[in-house]
């Protein structure tokens, strides 16, 4: 019940927003914030009641939805999904607070953010493949309108590209889901989309490979895995910055989560067979996107490419198919959400002040906005995986996992760490250090109270989780271990 | 000699079973009443006519409910009451009711009677009832001659309805529809004749028995089947028999277009399923490749051509072609997989409300057009440019437009999604996975043009010129609301309707 409440609280908030008169913008903002905070509170309550050390799904609900198709409403969390639920519920109120000042039609914007939150939470907690698919596609609609309605100049192009790309992947996955359902029905005679039932089904290796490919289409595009990333720079750059925070912070995790939750346990043989391919794509993604990021002039695009590059580490960890890699992958998902979220937030704040995102337009901001510079430094260092901050733990564990799986990939990926440090620190240096040469930069004000409220929780989480990763890792471990075992299991 | 001897025998008179065709009789009766009213009382208010039409539909609905559990073959096998008939009756009566509400709405305000007439003269109500009679009968027909008669009843009514206004585009559309329609009727009739020649009967049950006769090589029957398929494919607007669709959909008055898009499709596919999956199910190996191939080109051509349209009605016409393609996937699966039948029936139901809803929005928007349109001009605001910023000015209708577009795209959890899903499921079960993959590709292409409507309505700035005041549109508003609610409700709780569709899987006669 708690989980269902947390899942639908934002949606309820969005419905209530429709009742607020359009003129009362302030009321709409507070209502949206309240709804997202209710979801956060419920998610925290969920985390408190969560029993660490158990691998299985907890706190779940099961009910019939469309019995004649075997579709059920089944939700639950385990050590893999709980951190992502928390990440989502933390980032959404921050995104709402971050968009407090954007004046244009805030009611619709906030309602869409809340619908997006429910859809993304649904993806993380669904344990019925059909329900999962429904939420998966439901993410598209609010994201489409957020990018297309409220984005920058090329927003329509970006929104349509994003929609078509991800819909194509999703529909191929639907074919895979139906095929899986049909196999199950043929084998057992009962219609079911239940996660456990479909996982326990025996699947011939050749069949697995086809099904893996169908799911891969959806997950690889959504993550995105190189070379399916071309929609992303457009979408991230054109979306309003607080939307980008949710897209990069949470939505990019949907694909990786899908690999972890579905591709590995459902098609273990195919996953093992295709491991080299996936690891290769991950490494190419890390290096390629790091190089592309290094030459960007627009800081937002730079962060967008850096996000794809870092996601490569998560894919690397997941497809290392060992405990270190998977555990690190889940941890890095959280870390990535916090860090990339932080980077985009600061980008948005700079854009609000200066009306530009070009790196060469800035310079010496440390003098005019010292506190912002300090916060940005912490986030940047976290993103380049400085030990003691959250990024390090994730990157270290995923690289360790990759190293244990195959050294060559780990060595190549480690080069990506260095590149990441190069382009992020170089950009930091160009934007924040040096002398104040432009008058506009002299006038850049430091953080306001509201901006502190947005960034402080992020920075706190970045530091605290970096120093004390244990409580989180403990909860992830049993579930990650279970995925490892399921993937290792040899099908007869 | 032999033939003459046969002719001399008295033709057996079938036992009349009034109850079996009670809904059809009610519809035809109501049509006659309405025809008398509009003839002898030209000043009758539109609201009254619409009310009478709705009353006729209500009686037919009541009779359908009365016949609900009746499962039998009546008139010596000419009419069969089974799940398909029952389900199609429900769909068609709902379509009829929504179309009546749309037609009840005048061009602008109710006080402006003259311009109301411009949109669709009062004869639309009796014609709608006659067309509906044909459609309902078509869905129940289990003898090829009844199929032909029912098809003619509905086609003749629709030819007139399409050309009811004095607008030139409508006249042209009606003419085109009539010529091509008559052509396709001839094909159908020839097909019936060949089937009769091959099997000695026009009864579907008899054809089914004869078609599995191993002594016959079946060439003649195959030729007959081919011609039958041409006739049906024309009615459901499948490629390459789709040429009439865009012109007719664009030119006809919007309520008629909506009625045709939803009603003709439902009746056409009901008979398609009954003849091909039922009677000719034994010859599935022969016809499945053809139907599958037609499904492929229909889905892809429909979707691809819809992408380049600049007129919303025309775009919806091409989209309806590609939806016919998805339905053909269901037909192709239906002969070996019963789920193919129920999936197609469910699809027809879901599709009816989505597509009618979309046309209702077109009708709503066309009420905002420039007030002084000349009779010769098109005068309908269905160009995509007219919808720039539409959602900003009309948030509620805009939201409904978005809803219908997303449902047509197949975004969960709206009704169109379940429809598509069910058809895909049937296709995979029948071993037509490749066809389902093509359907997926086509869905992605379609997403592009459905999204374009949203882009125009939501993401572009409204045009500067002033719009005419919309005036109150209670009937249209009610119809829009019903279509919207049904699209969402079927999406959230498809269970009941899916179960009902399952009862259609057993074909009688």
Radius of gyration of chain A: 22 Å
Query: What is the helix fraction of residues of chain A, given as a range?
Result: over 70%
Oligomerization category of the chains in this entry: heterodimer
Through-space gap between termini of chain B: 32 Å
Uncertain residue segments of chain B:
108-117, 371-378
Largest sheet geometry of chain B: 2 strands, antiparallel
Radius of gyration of chain B: 22 Å
Strand order in the largest sheet of chain A: 1-2
Q: Measure the end-to-end span of chain A.
A: 38 Å
| Helix/strand structural class of chain B | mainly alpha
* Percent range for β-strand residues of chain B: under 5%
How is the topology of this model organized?
The complex is a heterodimer of chains A (492) and B (509).
Chain A: H1 2-19, H2 25-49, E1 58-66, E2 71-77, H3 81-98, H4 106-125, H5 129-138, H6 140-150, H7 155-188, H8 195-200, H9 205-222, H10 231-238, H11 241-266, H12 268-294, H13 299-318, H14 323-354, H15 365-368, H16 370-383, H17 390-405, H18 407-432, H19 439-442, H20 449-467, H21 470-488
Chain B: H1 2-8, H2 22-40, H3 46-66, E1 72-74, E2 79-81, H4 83-104, H5 113-119, H6 124-140, H7 144-162, H8 168-199, H9 204-211, H10 219-235, H11 244-251, H12 254-279, H13 284-307, H14 312-334, H15 338-366, H16 390-393, H17 395-409, H18 415-429, H19 433-459, H20 474-492, H21 495-502
Helix pairs in contact in B: 2-3, 2-6, 3-4, 4-6, 4-12, 4-15, 4-20, 6-7, 6-12, 7-8, 7-12, 8-9, 8-10, 8-11, 10-12, 11-12, 11-14, 12-14, 12-15, 13-14, 13-19, 14-15, 14-18, 14-19, 15-17, 15-18, 15-20, 15-21, 17-19, 17-20, 18-19, 18-20
Q: Mind explaining what this structure looks like?
A:
The complex is a heterodimer of chains A (492) and B (509). In chain A, α12 runs antiparallel to α13 (299-318). By secondary structure, chain A is mainly alpha-helical. Chain A has helices at residues 2-19, 25-49, 81-98, 106-125, 129-138, 140-150, 155-188, 195-200, 205-222, 231-238, 241-266, 268-294, 299-318, 323-354, 365-368, 370-383, 390-405, 407-432, 439-442, 449-467, 470-488; strands at 58-66, 71-77. Helix content of chain A is 76%, strand content 3%. Chain A contains 21 helices and 2 strands. The longest helix of chain A is centred in the middle third of the chain and has 34 residues, at 155-188. In chain B, 72% of the residues lie in helices and 1% in strands. With 509 residues, chain B is mainly alpha-helical. Chain B has one domain. Chain B has a two-stranded antiparallel sheet with strand order 1-2. Chain B has 21 helices and 2 strands. Classes of the chains: A mainly alpha (492), B mainly alpha (509). At the A-B interface, α5, α6 and α7 of A face α18, α19 and α21 of B.
